[in-house]
Write a structure and sequence with these properties.
The chain is 42% helix and 11% strand.
């Protein structure tokens, strides 16, 4: 492993277009440490990694999201190589965020001021750009900050943050039988879903709900108080009644995504 690490090239950082300042490019994180931290906290942590698998199906070619040990090993190799070994995953992350920032520009789903730009795309990626650099990009509504901190502080554990799998804001005080029953019912309902429906119901819709709830009273993944940046999107996003699955399909088409619409009889219930 040492020889491999020594021969690995440094991480090549990309750029995205700031939707509030279309003539300016923003760095996709300021350095490899920031990029590595976000890969670990979001793409390599359950349950959010399962959302990224729906956003970018190529994810599974780089790392098995179902295998916690594989994700941990990928994160360790990334740290040892200054994120050089994680270039393919970083590029996938960069491409997905770029598409969503482009979506936000087309749809007007962004808010910019002198300090920052916050935006949301049709894949449900929320990005914040500050001082000409992306400072975070994640799938809101996919996990709890409390669970993340607990995972990071656990001794002698290789579990990455947020492994308990609860969505943001839920207490987790449910019996195992109840969880298994709900999982079985959900699996039966979702068995006939298309890839587009899975992306909408599992990723995009929770992201919009996260934003609509307003997060000025919440903390981020590392326990720091959130300044209310996410809530800035509430004024530019359509109401939930205008963001149902059939509306989302048309919005994706407007952004050049070309998601196929399904007959009404095949749509999952709202």
């Amino acid at each position: 492993m040492n020889n491999t690490t020594q021969q690995t090239e440094p991480l090549r950082l990309g750029t995205v277009t700031d939707p509030a300042r279309p003539d300016e490019s923003a760095r996709f994180f300021v350095d490899w440490e920031s990029a590595h931290r976000h890969l670990c906290d979001h793409l390599l942590t359950a349950p959010e990694c399962f959302g990224w698998q729906l956003v970018a199906p190529q994810y599974v070619q780089m790392c098995d999201p179902e295998d916690a040990d594989a994700r941990w090993s990928y994160a360790q190799q990334s740290a040892d190589s200054q994120c050089g070994t994680a270039q393919p995953l970083y590029d996938l992350y960069h491409a997905a965020v770029t598409r969503d920032t482009d979506d936000s520009s087309v749809l007007g789903w962004y808010h910019g001021n002198r300090r920052l730009t916050v935006c949301l795309g049709t894949s449900g990626i929320l990005a914040i750009i500050e001082q000409q650099a992306v400072v975070t990009a994640f799938l809101p509504g996919q996990g709890s900050g409390h669970d993340t901190r607990a995972g990071q502080q656990a001794e002698a554990s290789r579990v990455l943050p947020r492994e308990s799998g609860m969505r943001s804001g839920r207490s987790g005080r449910r019996s195992r039988d109840a969880i298994e029953h709900d999982r079985h019912v959900r699996q039966q309902r979702e068995a006939a879903w298309s890839a587009a429906q899975r992306l909408y119901y599992r990723v995009f819709k929770p992201a919009v709900q996260f934003v609509k709830r307003g997060h000025h009273r919440h903390r981020d993944l590392h326990g720091r108080l959130i300044r209310g940046d996410y809530a800035l999107l509430k004024d530019v996003l359509p109401p939930l009644s205008q963001l149902k699955y059939e509306h989302w399909v048309l919005l994706r088409q407007r952004c050049g995504r070309n998601e196929p619409a399904l007959p009404a009889t095949e749509r999952a219930s709202e």
